[in-house]
Amino acid sequence: MKKSILCIGAGYVGGPTMAVIADRCPDYRVQVADINEARIRAWQSGEPPIYEPGLKEVVARALNRNLFFTTEIEKAIEEADIIFVSVNTPTKTFGEGAGMAADLQYWERTARQIKSCAKTPKIVVEKSTVPVRTAEAMDYILNSGGGVHFEVLSNPEFLAEGTAIRDLMEPDRVLIGGKNTPEGRAAMEALVTIYARWVPRERILTTGVWSSELSKLAANAFLAQRISSINALSALCETTGADIGEVALAVGRDSRIGPRFLGAGVGFGGSCFRKDLLNLVYLCECQGLREEAEYWRRVVLMNDHQRHRFVRGMLSHMFNTVVGKRIAVFGFAFKADTGDTRDSPAIYVCRRLVEERAQVVVHDPRALDNARVDLADLGDAVAYETDPYRAAEGAHAIALLTAWDLYAQLDYQRIYDSMIKPACFFDGRNQLDPDKLFSIGFNVYTVGRPPRTH
Ligand code: NAD
Ligand code: UGA
């Protein structure tokens, strides 16, 4: 075996990333450690605790060959040469910066644990998304008071859920930030050597630590900003009669703009866009950059507004009352091909509909367990269905909130026949053909297009 790698944090990033490294570098021993025993047991069993297309197959190739999952973090730290830290960095909910700043308690705890267990020098790699200059703070904690030397690198992750394996296997770029010292350059080279096993060299960028940290926040901010921009235009389309699909196509054909991330809908969700934008806002504020902070804050506010607008549209098209009406929600995950529901727009939409006293029935092929937890306090006002046809039976309306492929395959004539009339279809992802639904008999409401009503 060449080198021993450890990743602390076996979540959506740590698990898939290490599985791919183990797969591509069979001569490295890769361990993944977590305090969550149930998660580790699931990884060890070969049935990953998260749903991600292609993940199970990659894990199966490396599991117990050179990929190991453990809760014995201290022992694993001692054994490792390179330690990735991929613990969660959620938005702070208390004290200074509450609701905006990143909560770095898990990160700092991990750094202190590494320091107390390490007997040999280590490269510590910041994989979690963190505020600029976190690596500097970690360096300070790790290297204070003498003892073994730690070299801290930043190596943010750009994978998106649902396409994580493809993103890891064929990344647009790998970003590694380190210090411009002999030790820093050597540490960066050790990490470059790992990625270069399967990533072309020209796609591996090495920068200063702070640029690397900021680039991660910046990339998410740019992506989220595109979604808020197209959603802002979608409202204008609805009032002027323009079609957001046609506008996005025409705008995206400009090679300087490009076609991706111009999908209007119910807004972005997921564990990172909101968190990282707020983190950026907080950083700007801390630097006294009020206008800049306000600029990025608007991206989040536009996303909130889009969610409100979607529910308001549902209410107004259903005669301003949904009391006692059954509404089927198609899709609860924050996007297709994942079971993750963190900050999913569906959480907001379901809560608002229940507030309006509707009877909500949620269908999702992968996210029902998480949905039950997210909406636990709503009790009987929400039902959960594994069969989309049963979910829609007797409903006044369907709200499609996650663009799972299966929703494009359903027999909508059968669904329409089983619903109360007039039957409304609210497509929050612009996934289905509105003309087809309209010709079946539905009143069809999409985002950024005029409604089609009978
Ligand atoms: P996650 O919550 O799925 O996983 C984090 C894991 O860390 C959890 O299993 C938790 O139990 C574990 N953990 C926390 N403290 C620990 C400790 N002291 N010791 C051992 N384990 C500990 O989070 P995630 O989605 O994998 O995100 C991790 C980081 O990666 C975040 O900073 C996030 O912003 C970033 N990121 C996430 C994605 C994504 O698609 N989810 C993509 C890129 C970057
Ligand atoms: C996003 C980024 O795409 C990743 O590069 C990044 O690593 C990750 O955040 C992170 O830091 O966690 P992810 O949130 O997993 O990845 O998924 P995306 O595909 O970016 O989708 C985010 C949200 O935007 C979803 O709710 C999706 O439905 C929505 N979206 C996306 C739109 O509303 N319109 C679009 O055109 C594209």
Would you summarize the structure shown here?
It contains 18 helices and 14 strands. With 454 residues, the protein is an alpha/beta fold. Strand 7 (174-177), helix 8 and strand 8 form a beta-alpha-beta unit.
What does this structure look like?
- The protein has 454 residues and is α/β, with parallel strands linked by helices.
- The chain has 2 domains: 4-207, Rossmann fold; 209-454, NAD(P)-binding Rossmann-like Domain (Rossmann fold), CATH 3.40.50.
- 44% of the residues lie in helices and 14% in strands.
- It contains 18 helices and 14 strands.
- It has helices spanning 14-24, 37-45, 55-62, 73-79, 105-117, 134-143, 164-169, 182-195, 209-240, 244-252, 273-286, 290-317, 345-355, 368-374, 388-392, 406-409, 412-417, 434-440; strands at 4-8, 29-33, 67-70, 82-85, 122-126, 150-154, 174-177, 204-207, 326-330, 359-363, 382-385, 397-400, 424-427, 443-446.
- It has a 6-stranded parallel beta sheet, with helices on both faces. A 6-stranded parallel beta sheet has the order 11-10-9-12-13-14, sandwiched between helices. Strands 7-8 form a two-stranded parallel sheet.
- Strand 5 (122-126), helix 6 and strand 6 (150-154) form a beta-alpha-beta unit.
- Helix 1 packs across helix 3.
- The protein is globular and about 75 Å long.
- 47% of the residues are buried.
- The model has no long low-confidence stretch (mean pLDDT 96).
- The structure holds nicotinamide-adenine-dinucleotide and uridine-5'-diphosphate-glucuronic acid.
- Residues 8-14, 33-36, 39, 73, 86-89, 106, 109-110, 128-129, 157, 159, 161, 271-272 line the site of nicotinamide-adenine-dinucleotide.
